[in-house]
Amino acid sequence: MGGKSMSNGKGDKPRFYPDDKYRDNYNKIFKKKGNKKMDKSVKDKCVMCGAKTEYDKETHIDNRKNYIEGAGQMCQPCHQRIY
Ligand SMILES: [Zn+2]
């Protein structure tokens, strides 16, 4: 029993197989959950009246109209009323 690592040929194989399995499982579960939750595309709501806007929550701000920085997304009528 010196300073050599234990490589007898029996403890070498099963080392990374649980890791792989775990990762696969985790991936499956995570994907399933994400898919279910993201089933419908979520539209951003107008911060003033709560009406649905035409923009997904994922839509970048640069690609939106009627978006007030610091306030949020507004619908067209509300935006026009204020500005
Ligand atoms: Zn509105």
Any descriptors?
83 residues, alpha+beta, two-stranded antiparallel ribbon, 4 strands, 34% helix, rod-shaped, binds zinc ion
Structure described in brief:
By secondary structure, the protein is an alpha+beta fold. The protein contains 2 helices and 4 strands, in the order H-E-E-E-E-H. The protein has a domain at 43-82.
Q: What's the shape? A: rod-shaped
Structural class: alpha+beta
Please give the share of residues in helix. Answer: 25-40%
Intertermini distance: 81 Å
Would you write up a description of this structure?
The mean pLDDT is 80. This protein has 2 helices and 4 strands. It starts with 16 loop residues before the first helix and ends with a helix. It has a domain at 43-82. The chain is of the alpha+beta class and 83 residues long. It is rod-shaped, with a radius of gyration of 26 Å.
Chart the SSEs and their pairings.
Elements: H1 17-37, E1 43-45, E2 52-56, E3 67-68, E4 72-73, H2 76-82
Antiparallel strand pairs: 1-2, 3-4
